[in-house]
Amino acid sequence: MISFVWAEDKNHVIGVDGHLPWKLPNDMKRFKDVTTNHPIVMGRKTFESFPNGPLPKRLNIVISRNPNYQVPEGVVLISNREQLKDVVKPDDEVMVIGGAGIFRMFEDIVDRLYLTRINHEFVGDTKMVDLDYRQFKLIEKKEGIMDKENVYPYTFETYQKIN
Ligand SMILES: NC(=O)c1ccc[n+]([C@@H]2O[C@H](COP(=O)([O-])OP(=O)(O)OC[C@H]3O[C@@H](n4cnc5c(N)ncnc54)[C@H](OP(=O)(O)O)[C@@H]3O)[C@@H](O)[C@H]2O)c1
């Protein structure tokens, strides 16, 4: 099963200058809860955006067109969608975590969406793909808690593909 995990602003912005446009620690916690113990699949640029290297307790799978791209030990490099099935188990929930081109690569086979919707406008250079939400059912929605560390209004939403 393929899932998407991401956060976007009011205008579907997801990134700026190779990093996230916002600081929202509660979303980082949600991301960790949702993805830990699952394989995560990401584009080469998203992988390079991690300040401390590969994320622990998750198989990190990086997609690049460069077959010689060097990844640290334990990280798996693939160059297309077909190679994914060789590196995950059939019953894994595979967490696709971006960026834009990687969401596009999987949008026709995604089953579940874990979206953090941030109700604010940010300057950005990377946007989420235009998903057809008519094909999905909202199965969970939680208002995000705001405090001095989490200053933007946000909601956590989970959608399941309608079969
Ligand atoms: N808000 C969020 O939830 C979220 C999530 C993820 C990322 N982001 C942000 O988004 C930005 C990065 O996203 P991005 O879209 O610019 O880059 P990205 O998808 O992370 O990485 C792009 C790279 O992936 C590889 N790639 C892309 N399409 C491919 C294909 N069809 N076949 C093989 N390889 C392919 C290429 O690597 P090579 O150049 O090595 O060939 C390409 O340069 C950053 O600002 C990041 O912080 C935000």
From TrEMBL:
<keyword id="KW-0554">One-carbon metabolism</keyword>
<dbReference type="InterPro" id="IPR012259">
    <property type="entry name" value="DHFR"/>
</dbReference>
<comment type="pathway">
    <text>Cofactor biosynthesis; tetrahydrofolate biosynthesis; 5,6,7,8-tetrahydrofolate from 7,8-dihydrofolate: step 1/1.</text>
</comment>
<dbReference type="GO" id="GO:0004146">
    <property type="term" value="F:dihydrofolate reductase activity"/>
</dbReference>
<comment type="similarity">
    <text>Belongs to the dihydrofolate reductase family.</text>
</comment>
<dbReference type="GO" id="GO:0006730">
    <property type="term" value="P:one-carbon metabolic process"/>
</dbReference>
<feature type="domain" description="DHFR">
    <location>
        <begin position="1"/>
        <end position="161"/>
    </location>
</feature>
<dbReference type="GO" id="GO:0005829">
    <property type="term" value="C:cytosol"/>
</dbReference>
<protein>
    <recommendedName>
        <fullName>Dihydrofolate reductase</fullName>
        <ecNumber>1.5.1.3</ecNumber>
    </recommendedName>
</protein>
<comment type="function">
    <text>Key enzyme in folate metabolism. Catalyzes an essential reaction for de novo glycine and purine synthesis, and for DNA precursor synthesis.</text>
</comment>
<dbReference type="GO" id="GO:0046452">
    <property type="term" value="P:dihydrofolate metabolic process"/>
</dbReference>
<dbReference type="GO" id="GO:0046655">
    <property type="term" value="P:folic acid metabolic process"/>
</dbReference>
<dbReference type="GO" id="GO:0046654">
    <property type="term" value="P:tetrahydrofolate biosynthetic process"/>
</dbReference>
<keyword id="KW-0560">Oxidoreductase</keyword>
<dbReference type="InterPro" id="IPR001796">
    <property type="entry name" value="DHFR_dom"/>
</dbReference>
<dbReference type="GO" id="GO:0050661">
    <property type="term" value="F:NADP binding"/>
</dbReference>
<dbReference type="Pfam" id="PF00186">
    <property type="entry name" value="DHFR_1"/>
</dbReference>
<keyword id="KW-0521">NADP</keyword>
<dbReference type="InterPro" id="IPR017925">
    <property type="entry name" value="DHFR_CS"/>
</dbReference>
<dbReference type="InterPro" id="IPR024072">
    <property type="entry name" value="DHFR-like_dom_sf"/>
</dbReference>
